[in-house]
Amino acid sequence: MTEVFRGAIVAVPKGVGEAAKALALPPNFRFRLITFPLMLRVALPGMGNLWQSALKDSSLVSVVGFTELLAVGKIAASQTKFYLGFFCTTALIFLALAIISNWAFSLVSRHLNRGFA
User: Fold this and answer.
1) Are 62 and 100 spatial neighbours (Cβ–Cβ below 8 Å)?
2) Residue at 117 is within a domain
3) Does residue 30 carry a pLDDT above 60?
């Protein structure tokens, strides 16, 4: 994630920062009002890719509210011997989480890219 943010900060044109400096904006205002919004627009696709990758690795799913979803599905399937049903349900939950997070990233991306061709 650090590499994504570093690349996004480097992608902000130097002229934008120089123009803000010419307006005598303090450094914290320059970053918060000018550099950060432009940086976020560039960093968002990379952040979305990293989020999807972490979500599919399933260790982060416990933060979202599930306790290691695949392990719970495996335990439930072994106790009931209904493997196909539990694994299909687990796959559908992963798919729903991926679709919802993809939709959220596209909404934020559309909002940040207003006014850009």
Assistant:
1) no
2) no
3) yes
Joined together, the tokens standing for residue 78 give: 């072994």
Domain for residue 86, yes or no? Answer: yes
26 — phi, psi (to 5°)?
Answer: -65, 155
Residue 104 near residue 36 (C-beta atoms within 8 A): no
Is the predicted pLDDT of residue 29 greater than 80, yes or no? yes
Residue 58 CA to its chain's centroid (Å):
15
Contact between residue 106 and residue 96 where contact means Cβ atoms under 8 Å apart: no
What are 46's two structure tokens? 């990379």
Q: What is the mean pLDDT of residues 79-100?
A: 86
Lowest mean pLDDT among 39-53, 75-89, 102-116: 75-89
Q: Residue 33's domain spans which residues?
A: 2-112
- Phi and psi dihedrals of 81, rounded to 5? 60, 25
CATH of the domain at 76: 1.10.3720.10
Q: Are 105 and 48 in contact (CB under 8 A)?
A: yes
Cα–Cα distance list, 42 to 19, 36, 95 (Å)? 20, 10, 26
